Amino acid sequence: AALRARCDEWCYFVAMELDATSLYVIRRHGDLPEIYGESPVAVECAAEYFARQIKVPEEKVADGRTYILGDSFCAADIMLTSCLTWAIRYGRPVPDPLIAYRERVINRPAYKTAFAVCYPDT
């Protein structure tokens, strides 16, 4: 139960702090202005917020742990890896410990299999 609670906590952090209030705002008001309206100020604020919030998972993985919860892979690792990939594509700075963490996750055989199924033309 404790491990599940920690995983849930990270899932909510990633979904709300890194995705919804940061990266998705950048996408909405930077790439989709015809739908959501253009707002350079919102994009800039969201980028600054992401830069602050990305330090939270950076501190966790900086100790060399394999996954966000240590040795246990969980749904939060999938969500965090997705946000890190998105951040990289959007040119957001991602700290080196998180780059190394992302590499560990995307090099898992299950990740490669799922990626090939979802993106067969890549």
- The termini sit apart by 38 Å
Number of strands: 0
- What characterizes the major β-sheet? none
The sequence of SSEs as H and E is HHHHHHH
3D shape: globular
Spans of 5+ residues with little confidence (pLDDT < 50)?
A: none
Mean pLDDT: 95
Strand-residue proportion:
under 5%
Structural class: mainly alpha
Number of helices: 7
What's the alpha carbon Rg, rounded to whole Å?
A: 15 Å
Helical coverage, percent range: over 70%
Summarize the structure.
With 122 residues, this protein is mainly α. It has helices spanning 2-31, 33-36, 40-53, 55-61, 75-89, 96-106, 109-118.
Describe the 3D structure.
With about 120 residues, the protein is mainly alpha-helical. About 75% of the residues lie in helices and about 0% in strands. It has helices at about 1-30, 35, 40-55, 55-60, 75-90, 95-105, 110-120. Helix 1 (about 1-30) runs antiparallel to helix 3 and helix 5 crosses helix 6 (about 95-105).
